[in-house]
TrEMBL record, chain B:
Stored InterPro entries: Beta-grasp_dom_sf, Mopterin_synth/thiamin_S_b, ThiS/MoaD-like
Entry-linked SUPFAM superfamilies: MoaD/ThiS (SSF54285)
Top-level taxon: Bacteria
One Pfam family of this chain: ThiS
UniProt organism field: Algicella marina
Protein name: Molybdopterin converting factor subunit 1
Length: 149, 81
């Protein structure tokens, strides 16, 4: 179980290999990788700046990881979230969950992502040819979270 | 207490953090005090439905008491992931 908030990139394959190392009891590993898209609506973006709240970010990610463990039989989990300036195509976030059964691994990975979207203290600013703008929270993200209540 | 601002709230207030001497009893009282102080706070806190609050790094309501709180943070709805 681990949470990392970092500027540097990550290697999904290496992270999963580390998570599996020395273990033969895992039944399923689900990973999700979030990427910076090159469009904001119809506007091409040149970069994305990701701001976060040092201290609160780590605490809130650890709390949601603990909540996922309470809800599903997780054998391992990992959340890596980047901050700083990212370019289109860059990786933003990695979530990995391992469980004896696939349903728990899929569901808990979705749960972690839904939480990250609207409860973890990150903010995105997109740089476009028309200037910079903060990404608004979307109502659909809130709806996605409500299904876990 | 330490007051922190993030994202566009930080940009509108014009600084990431400051130390505020206050007798405010709740977060809402603190917001009113800041708004009365300078125009830039009025701009930042124009629509409180778009502002989220954390007290000592835990999400809280505007009505939450400030007793014993060391760090207050104001920011827009989060957009991680």
């Amino acid at each position: 179980m681990a949470v990392r908030v970092q500027v540097s990139d990550f290697d999904m394959g290496a992270e999963v290999a580390l998570l599996r190392r020395g273990r033969t009891d895992l039944g399923a590993v689900v990973t999700f990788t979030g990427l910076v898209r090159d469009l904001a609506g119809d506007n091409p973006i040149s970069a994305m700046e990701l701001e976060h709240y040092p201290g609160m970010t780590e605490k809130s990610l650890e709390a949601i990881e603990a909540e996922a463990q309470r809800r599903w039989p997780l054998q391992a989990s990992l959340i890596i979230h980047r901050h700083g300036r990212l370019a289109p195509g860059d990786q933003i976030v990695l979530v990995a969950t391992a469980s004896p059964h696939r349903a728990a691994a899929f569901e808990s990975a979705e749960f972690l992502m839904d939480y990250l979207k609207s409860r973890a203290p990150f903010w995105k600013k997109e740089e476009t040819g028309r200037g910079d703008s903060w990404v608004d929270a979307r109502e659909t993200d809130e709806d996605a979270l409500s299904r876990w209540r | 207490m330490d007051v922190l601002y993030f994202a566009w709230v930080r940009e509108r207030v014009g600084k990431p953090r400051e130390v505020v001497a206050t007798e405010a009893k709740t977060v809402a009282d603190l917001v009113d005090e800041l708004i009365a102080r300078e125009e830039r706070y009025a701009v930042a806190f124009e629509d409180m439905s778009t502002i989220r609050v954390a007290l000592d790094q835990e999400l809280a309501e505007l009505s939450a008491p400030l007793t014993g709180v060391r760090e207050v943070a104001f920011f827009p709805p989060m957009t991680g992931g």
